[in-house]
Amino acid sequence: MSVHGEIDDDVHAALSQALMPDDDAAAPLRIVADLNGVTFGCGQAWDQGA
User: Containing H/E element for 6?
Assistant: First the structure.
């Protein structure tokens, strides 16, 4: 998977949901993501580990 753009407070929940399997699906052993084109916004929720 390749991810591009900024991961910040506005999109971290949507990205987390996209990476998680459906309720009926088995969780993958690993997910490989290319984060080369990604910047990370450091909002307060990230600082608190949310």
Answer: strand 2-7
pLDDT, tens only, 18-38: 877 777 777 777 888 888 888
Is the pTM above the cut of 0.85? no
> What's the rounded Cα separation, in Å, for the pair 23 and 5?
28
Residue 15 burial (CB count, 10 A): 13
Asked whether the beta carbons of 41 and 7 are under 8 A apart, the reply is: yes
Closest CA to 1 of 37, 26, 27, 46: 37
Question: Cβ(43)–Cβ(49) under 8 Å?
Answer: no
- Cite the DSSP H helix spans in the chain: 12-19, 44-47
